[in-house]
Amino acid sequence: MLLIKCPWCGARAETEFSYGGEADIKRPEAPDKLSDKEWADYLFMRKNPRGTHRELWNHSQGCRRWFGAERNTVTYQIADIFTLSEDSG
Amino acid sequence: MQPNRLKTGGRINRSKPLNFFFNGKAFKGYEGDTLASALLANDVKLVGRSFKLRRPRGIVGSGAEEPNSIMQVDKGAMAQPNVRATQVLLHDGLIAKSTRGWPSLRFDIGFMLDVFSSIFSAGFYYKTFMHPRPFWKYYERFIRKSAGFGKAPEHSDPETYEHRNAHCDVLVAGGGPAGLMAALTAASSGARVLLADDQTEFGGSLLNTATHVNSKPGSEWVRQTVSALSKLDNVTLLNRSTVFGYHDHNFLTIVQESDDHVRQREWRVRAKQVILSQGAFERPLVFCNNDRPGIMQASAVSTYINRYAVCPGERAIIFTNNDSAYQTALDLKRAGATVAAVVDSRKKGGGSYAAAVEQAGIPLLYGHLITNVSGQNHITKAHIAKWDGDNDAIIENSIKIPCDLIAMSGGWSAAVHLHSQAGGQNQWDHNLCSFVPGAISQQTISAGAGNGKWALEDCLQDGHDAGMSAAKRCGLQPIASEQLPAVSEIHTTPIEPLWRVPATVDPDRCPKQFLDFQNDTCVSDIRLAVREGYRNVEHVKRYTALGFGTDQGKLGNINGMAVLAETLGKPLEDVGTTTFRPPYTPVSFGACAGESVGSLYDPVRKTAMHDLHRSAGAKFENVGQWHRPWYFPKRGESLDAAVARECLKTRQSVGILDASTLGKIDVQGPDAVKFLERIYTHNVGNMSVGRCAYGIMLGEDGMVMDDGVMARIDDQHFYLTTTTGGAAAVLSWLELWLQTEWPELDVFLTSVTDHYSTIAVSGPNSMKLIEKIGCDIPLTSDQFPFMSIRNAHLNRIPVQLFRVSFSGELAFEINIDSNYAAGMWEVLIDAGQEFDITPYGTEAMHVLRAEKGFIIVGQDTDGSVTPVDLRMNWMLSKDKDFIGKRSLSRPDSLRDDRKQLVGLLSNDGKTVLLEGAQLVEDPAASIPIPMCGHVSSSYMSSCLGHPIALALVAGGHSRIGQSLYASSGEKSFVPVTITNPIFYDKKNELQNV
Known about the structure:
The structure holds two protein chains of two kinds.
Chain A (H helix, E strand, L loop, with lengths): L2 E4 L3 E4 L4 E5 L13 H9 L7 E7 L7 E7 L5 E5 L7
Antiparallel strand pairs in A: 1-2, 3-4, 4-5, 5-6
Chain B lengths: L12 E10 L2 E7 L3 H7 L6 E2 L6 E2 L12 E4 L6 E5 L9 E5 L12 H5 L8 H6 L6 H12 L13 E13 L3 H11 L5 E4 L8 H4 L3 E2 L2 E2 H13 L4 E4 L2 E7 L3 E7 L6 E13 L3 E3 L12 E3 H11 L6 E6 L4 H10 L3 E7 L7 H8 L4 E3 L1 E7 L6 E6 L12 E4 L2 E5 L2 E3 L2 H5 L4 E4 L4 E4 L6 E3 L9 H18 L40 E3 L4 E2 H9 L5 H8 L12 H12 L3 H4 L13 H5 L16 H6 L3 E5 L2 E6 L7 H14 L2 E4 L4 E6 L3 H8 L12 E7 L5 E11 L2 E6 L4 H15 L6 E4 L4 E7 L3 H7 L15 E7 L2 E7 L7 E7 H14 L6 E2 L2 H10 L39 H4 L4 E8 L11 E3 L10 E11 L4 E9 L8 E5 L5 E7 L14
Parallel strand pairs in B: 1-7, 8-9, 8-15, 9-12, 15-28, 17-24, 18-19, 18-24, 19-20, 33-43
Antiparallel strand pairs in B: 1-2, 3-4, 5-6, 5-7, 10-11, 13-14, 14-15, 16-25, 21-22, 22-23, 26-27, 29-30, 31-32, 33-39, 34-37, 34-38, 35-36, 36-37, 39-42, 40-41, 41-42, 44-47, 44-49, 45-46, 45-48, 46-47, 48-49
């Protein structure tokens, strides 16, 4: 069970969190302007790397804030925790 | 009488004799015995039969590695199946039975299997019983019964189990010399240390051997060290506690055997640093009939002598390829046994201990092997032959020496289990003939024999160093020992690998050479697997069952892998190990469940009116964690009859429903409209204050995710309802978008599901009822139209009154502070008597909504249904973007053969279809019959007098009026007709009264 350091609450057990998949996926500004392929890329395509993965986590059983983590998918070590915007602190 | 019990010594309490029973016979042991040591003390040689070949088996080991003595312990609710006798602490009155052996252990019917053992080779079950396939169910019954794996307890466990969370700086797994030294050193820094050991007493090998520390018996140093540790506030000592799982981020699970309060306790520990000092397992040697009772690990023999004062034989032979077993020869001699010979496969023999053995007058046979043994239920002779070191030789000539005990040692394997579970690599060490812990990314240090340090001196040093490092890594200052405990210097001769004793005849035809005792995996099985094309160790494992037993191959795996490597002609390190997974030893379901059983299994959510429903005789159903009234039967009334009555009365007069479980979310803020416009498909901004709307939200894939009524309470204030099951998910969904995508929006979300209760009053008399209890606002449609919300007082209590309907009738939903809800319910019931008010449950609610063709998200949709499939095109705004909109124009969303929502009527007007039933066009078509949809909702409609159903049918919207067949069980079909999904009040006039 991972130990995840919530930027607002500190280190807590994984059971307090829920996983939100790959980070840095921005919703397109004008979806209707996109081709089917471009939209499908946004909708379905994910990196699934072996190694460093930037991903979203939510402290759902705590402060309910979303944040990002850089986790190694092989060792499960978390190298970095980041907030999602400048003013979210 | 305990014939094998030594007069003195051991760590048993001779003043506390204990009675116990094994296979119906009474025996005596002592406090401090394990079941295994007590059985050996009583000279019980035969303890079970092997899994596949039913060969007689005796005790081999003394701990977690034991493969043979698998017992059913105690009776009734307290019964424990499949426990190792070596790990069962003896208690007075203990009842143990072999789990295998029928009709009796001595005359097992399965001995026939051994007689015909040549056909029971690797993959036997796969090859023989899989064809013809329908017969497997008959074979399986026979195989499972004859395999005999103990019996599950017959009653629920009356004992308590618990989980306990703990945090520490340093967790030390294993309390032998390395672990004790590590704990002592780490604790000197003030670190919070937790030391766990699976045995009753700490000390590990120091209690099992006659080794001296500081010129005194090792047990004395253990006593002093444990005493010192127990005085420290920062140290927690857990004996009888097995660390069975090493999970991510230094999270470890420990199962602690019973104390006064609980039968077992599962510790869930988060440690900053972990020291793994679990020691090593001694390997058997692989020779013909090496599974016969009387053949034991040399270290186990020493353990029984030194720790339990039990000498398991009178005339012993030692068989070894390394130095450690020479200690066993000395232990046996001291215990009064005759040691007929030490057979060492190495030509140059052993070091210091060998010299001591020679001095004791024990014959040494260097460059010799035991090739086979005589004796069935117990060995009588060892067959010993000279060997020139050629692995491929066939050794035919041997001398037979009488003996009743063979103590064997094939070398040691470091217990790398936890290290591997933690994600660590293992490296093969040629000098040690063992895998040792390699690189690891978790905060772990291996120490002692588990780190390949066999000598006691090295163990103590390694433990000390590990304790120092772990404490320092925690940012603490440990105190280094100026001098480590003194142990006598031992010279050893290196081990020479002997993975398999050369066979007496062709290795594939000689008597069986066992690798895995529990699964009867032999050298010939591995060779056969390779001949049949298996190469990968994981595949060979699964084909031959090597390491599959409750011992998980602790004894036999390395030998098996070495034989595989030899057969493949590869180095062992290239063959590698199979994956180590938790648990290290079997863990009971009780320990896994902890307190989470019965009423504590899952929280129960009850509405504010729950007790009133119960008094009214409601039957409840579980909806997620909620307990909701399902129906309200009158005396002797069936479900069908009650639901029919509830539906009719509601449509004829007035019904009342507790709808409190609906999810409720309060949304406020300057950007509330902007936000909800993006979430919902309809035009939220067009709603005027006081109006309600039916809203659906889609996933970004365009599929319907949730639905519910939303109300505009004020310009910047909305109130959303969600499905009962979707409440938490919808709140999370909204938060996700607000926080990750649109943090600039100024919107606040609050779950108010539990704060408000909801009472739905439906039916033609609902308005009269509301008026009757006193309502301070006009209710008529011109002033309070359908789909609107008002603040009002009912019976002088403030409420939010919704004019909405999930039944198609004139209806009101009363949203009320939960503290007033039960009172309001009672007032409505009292006032409703003149209208014959009828409480109804979820079943009638479902029927009423299905009669109107209203969907239930999750029942009539399944995550693959778009609003267009539901004919909700009118709800999709063309003027704005919303989540999922773009996906509705993907080619897949535009297919005209998508499954679409329709109604279904059985052609006979009587048959209620099965929910989930598949729909086909031609039931006579060849199997597999093409399927074109399924029934999603199906009920008997008492109001219409016939059954109705909703279904998802490929291209259904353009197939109204066509016929299909619904499966109604095995090979039978019901003809149905596709209809519009609205069955009742098709023009929606009643709700608008």
